[in-house]
Write a structure and sequence with these properties.
Oligomer: single chain
Shape: elongated
Distance between the termini: 20 Å
Strand content: under 5%
Order of helices and strands: HHHHH
Mean pLDDT: 95
Helix content: over 70%
Number of domains: 1
Number of strands: 0
């Protein structure tokens, strides 16, 4: 069972690198976030956008009940928001 607290904190702190997605097993989505942040880091905008996505997803994880988090993100593998 994946912890919503761990996923939420990873999303908030390391979301621009897709750490929360790697933790939840969303490899494709995590690699997309990581590559966008690294390959477009020269823009300064792309990592910021990925960071905002990670922040929003982290907060969403933390505000859901344990059952809702488990059903939505672990069992049904909802990759984005």
């Amino acid at each position: 069972m994946k912890s919503k607290t761990t996923a939420g904190i990873l999303g908030i702190l390391l979301g621009c690198f897709g750490a929360h997605k790697f933790y939840l097993g969303y490899t494709k989505e995590a690699v997309i976030m990581l590559l966008v942040s690294l390959l477009l880091s020269w823009t300064g905008i792309a990592p910021g956008i990925m960071g905002i996505i990670g922040l929003v997803e982290g907060i969403m994880y933390l505000t859901k009940s344990d059952e809702e988090f488990q059903y939505t993100y672990v069992d049904n593998q909802k990759g984005w928001f």
